[in-house]
Specification:
This protein is mostly helical and 101 residues long. It has four helices and three strands, in the order H-H-E-H-H-E-E. The chain has a three-stranded antiparallel β-sheet with strand order 1-3-2.
């Protein structure tokens, strides 16, 4: 059982990204997926995280199709990237902190 812990969010995630993904793209699931991936990487002091579509859906309470749509938006906006060993392998996700450049 995991104990309660906290992560530190950069203000950009609340001030800008929330409005962009939820307001402009009309995709609250994209914001939710991004926050989950952010928590699993930066929140755990990791560079990346390997997660299947099913695991992302289960962890966020979204359907697999909603997760797929959200991931497409995040890829398009270059907020995440993913590496796969093969076409059917579980992706390894990396957060792209484009605002920090």
């Amino acid at each position: 059982m995991r104990t309660a812990s906290s992560i530190r969010l950069e203000m950009y995630l609340v001030d800008v990204l929330l409005r962009d993904l939820v307001g402009h793209d009309r995709s609250a699931p994209a914001y939710l997926i991004f926050l989950y991936l952010y928590a699993q990487t930066f929140g755990q002091s990791q560079r990346s995280v390997k997660l299947s579509l099913a695991r992302l859906a289960e962890a966020t309470g979204l359907s697999k199709s909603a997760v797929q749509s959200a991931l497409r938006i995040l890829y398009r906006r270059k907020l995440i990237r993913a590496n796969r060993a093969s076409r059917t392998a579980v992706p390894e996700y990396f957060i792209q902190r484009v605002w920090a450049r």
